[in-house]
UniProtKB/TrEMBL annotation:
This is TMV resistance protein N-like. InterPro entries: Apaf_helical, Disease_R_plants, NB-ARC, P-loop_NTPase, TIR_dom, Toll_tir_struct_dom_sf, WH_DNA-bd_sf, WHD_ROQ1-like. GO terms for molecular function: ADP binding. GO terms for biological process: defense response; signal transduction. Keywords: Leucine-rich repeat, Plant defense, Repeat. The gene is LOC108663962. Residues 1-93 form the TIR domain. SUPFAM superfamilies: P-loop containing nucleoside triphosphate hydrolases (SSF52540), Toll/Interleukin receptor TIR domain (SSF52200), Winged helix' DNA-binding domain (SSF46785).
């Protein structure tokens, strides 16, 4: 009976969401793979009782089971060993229990791979994990789901989003203070230098098990002021970093790196359909057109969401016109895939989008509404239109925009005058503002 059960074990990992964790209790996995020592002796006995085909299947199953990642007692105390197993299994159950929104297509398989690298439940070390990939592929989404699911297992937690937006001294100090304030709520942290912040972080967190996500890193200074060394954090801590720059992670020396893949054709079609038709599959007479958009989007989740939202409630004639226009764009830049949604906005909505891209990302919705209302933009209607198109989102009453969409908006304005910032309708870069003020190059028109 035991042998027959053994045959089924290696099959489970190939089935959706099934996990197998072998426990090697007073046996070395290498002995199981090589089938030497006591394992060899046991099989010799079984071969006298059962036919050769059956024992050969058992040999093969045992070999495969020994190749699955699990726990090896080695020389550890059994109580410690049991504690590790309980923590790991509890973590895995938490991953399964936590609800994930249905619109996050394809995320389960990607989370499984990421969790394997993060190695939650192992409290003997501090692990730093990088999530690396192009903009719009879902790095922040993955990090957010992990943060939501697992933060309850830590003594402190902090999610620092969009850290790449500035490298000014005041911005770095603000990030350090934000890290400390979220892990020690109720305490007020004030310091005047990055070095003071480093000293406080390393001193206050070195014995605390924390989960920290540093989102959208693009410069080594972010690492140096927030998480330069592992001994700044208590054992069991996990630091997760998202970035587009793989070389930054290599230079920093992360423990492991996960590179999310684009959606496959089936996943991409499902995501586009959810946005365009509020259904898992396209309408029958839109299937061919939907596949054309899926092919153009290249499996990029952000592009599929934006395109699907743009196409929602539109007829086949408009769909064909949109795909013809996209195909006429010879550049492969993702901005071109997203800009079609911007071009479909009313003029007032375009102005609101550009203002948010330049000035109001992360600001309170009520405050932004008052400012835009003063400009005569009718912001309640305009903001809702942008939300419906997946061009912005509102979380905790703050307005957010994907950094790729923000870049697209700023690039639209930049293209109006590449060489003279003073001729642009909006300025957000410090260097451009400095140039205009020092050169007095503002265009009155």
């Amino acid at each position: 009976i035991l042998g027959n059960s053994l045959e089924t074990i290696p099959q489970f990992p190939n089935k959706r969401r099934h996990k197998v964790f072998p426990i090697f209790y007073h046996v070395d996995p290498s002995d199981l793979r090589k089938q030497t020592g006591s394992v060899k002796q046991a099989f010799a006995i079984h071969e006298n009782k059962y036919n050769k085909d059956k024992t050969q299947r058992w040999r093969h199953a045992l070999f495969e089971a020994a190749d699955i990642n699990g726990w090896h007692l080695k020389d550890r105390y059994e109580s410690e060993f049991i504690g590790v197993i309980v923590k790991k299994i509890s973590t895995k159950l938490c991953e399964i229990r936590s609800s994930i929104p249905n619109n996050l297509i394809g995320i389960h398989s990607r989370l499984d791979k990421l969790y394997d690298k993060i190695d939650f439940g192992e409290d003997r070390d501090v692990r730093i994990i990088g999530i690396c990939g192009m903009g719009g592929i879902g790095k922040t989404t993955l990090a957010s789901v992990v943060y939501t699911q697992m933060s309850g297992d830590f003594e402190g937690k902090c999610f620092l989003d969009s850290v790449r937006e500035g490298l000014m001294k005041s911005r770095l100090i603000s990030l350090q203070a934000q890290l400390l304030s979220k892990i020690f709520p109720g305490e007020n942290f004030q310091f005047s230098s990055v070095y003071d912040g480093i000293e406080i972080i390393s001193r206050r967190l070195r014995h605390k098990k924390v989960l920290v996500v540093i989102d959208d890193v693009d410069n080594m200074q972010h690492f140096e002021c927030l998480a330069a060394k592992r001994d700044w954090f208590g054992l069991g801590s996990r630091i997760i970093i998202t970035t587009r720059d793989e070389h930054l992670l290599q230079a920093y020396g992360v423990d492991d790196m996960y590179k999310p893949t684009t959606l496959n054709a089936s996943e991409a079609l499902q995501l586009l359909s959810l946005k365009a038709f509020k259904s898992d599959t396209p309408k029958d007479d839109f299937m061919s057109l939907s596949k054309s958009f899926v092919q153009y989007a290249g499996g990029l989740p952000l592009a599929l969401e934006v395109l699907g939202s743009f196409l929602c409630d539109r007829g086949a004639v408009e769909w064909r016109s949109a795909i013809d226009r996209l195909k006429s764009e010879h550049e492969e830049e993702i901005h071109n895939r997203l800009k079609i949604s911007f071009d479909g906005l009313k003029e007032t909505e375009k102005n609101i989008f550009l203002d948010i891209a330049h000035f109001f990302k992360g600001w309170d919705r009520d405050f932004v509404t008052n400012i835009l209302d003063g400009c005569g933009y009718h912001p309640d209607i305009g903001l809702n239109a942008l939300i419906k198109r997946t061009l912005i989102r509102v979380e905790n009453n703050k307005i957010w925009m994907h950094d790729l969409l923000q870049e697209m908006g700023r690039n639209i304005v930049r293209q109006k005058s590449l060489n003279e910032p003073g001729e642009r309708c909006r300025l957000s870069e410090e260097s451009d503002v400095y140039h205009v003020l020092t050169q007095n190059s503002v265009s009155i028109s």
